[in-house]
Design brief:
CATH architecture: Up-down Bundle
Shape: elongated
Distance between the termini: 69 Å
Structural class: mainly alpha
Low-confidence stretches: none
CATH class: Mainly Alpha
CATH superfamily: Cytochrome c oxidase, subunit III, four-helix bundle
Oligomer: single chain
Number of domains: 1
Number of strands: 0
């Protein structure tokens, strides 16, 4: 059966609305994460470094939040498999909140790893630079995961997922779980380096 122009225009309007909602949600999440990082910077300041590697407290605080986000995404996946839309949306919002907190705390933690006074002649290629690079790459990947959760959340609130079609939610959850495992590996590197 041929698609009518009315159905085609409704689909285009729905896709346009979804894209706008995604953009607004992604900007809001980025703004909230950045605002949290700035608030932490103002409240706690910079931990003094004496040229040694240390474990930022923000990393310790954000790690349980990462695992909480993993659990909430898993619960969202379970809810959509059971066709519980309201519960699915609730768990997606909880996952988004965990992502905002994790990214904000990680940005603050990275900021504390930088010495307060830097000179080009004191550039470091040792352990601190390696640890900082690992953590920064993880935050960059987690930012992508946060955008992925934003995308799934927008589609979830537009009722695009059900008990038969939930592949996007499943991939999003596995991506988050994978980043959680990578974070555990980075924490192991921190533990080895600090000793």
């Amino acid at each position: 059966m041929p698609v009518t122009s009315s159905a085609s225009s409704r689909h285009a309007a729905s896709a346009g609305r979804a894209a706008l909602l995604f953009l607004l949600l992604a900007l809001g999440v980025c703004g909230l994460s950045w605002g949290l990082a700035m608030m932490l910077m103002r409240i706690f300041g910079r931990t003094p470094t004496r040229g040694e590697v240390f474990f930022p407290a923000a990393f310790a605080v954000s790690t349980p939040v990462l695992f909480a986000g993993s659990v909430t995404l898993h619960l969202a996946l379970r809810a959509i498999r059971q066709e519980q839309q309201a519960l699915f949306q609730k768990w997606l919002l909880a996952s988004l909140g965990c992502a905002v907190f994790f990214v904000g705390a990680q940005l603050y933690g990275l900021w504390t790893l930088f010495p307060s006074i830097r000179h080009p002649g004191e550039a470091e290629t040792g352990v601190t630079a390696f640890v900082f690079t690992l953590a920064a790459l993880h935050v960059a990947h987690f930012f992508v995961a946060t955008l992925f959760v934003c995308f799934v959340t927008v589609r979830g609130f537009m009722a695009r997922y059900d008990h038969e079609y939930f592949w996007g939610v499943k991939v999003c959850a596995w991506f988050w779980h994978g980043l959680g495992l990578i974070w555990v590996a980075i924490l192991a590197v921190f533990t080895i380096v600090i000793r």
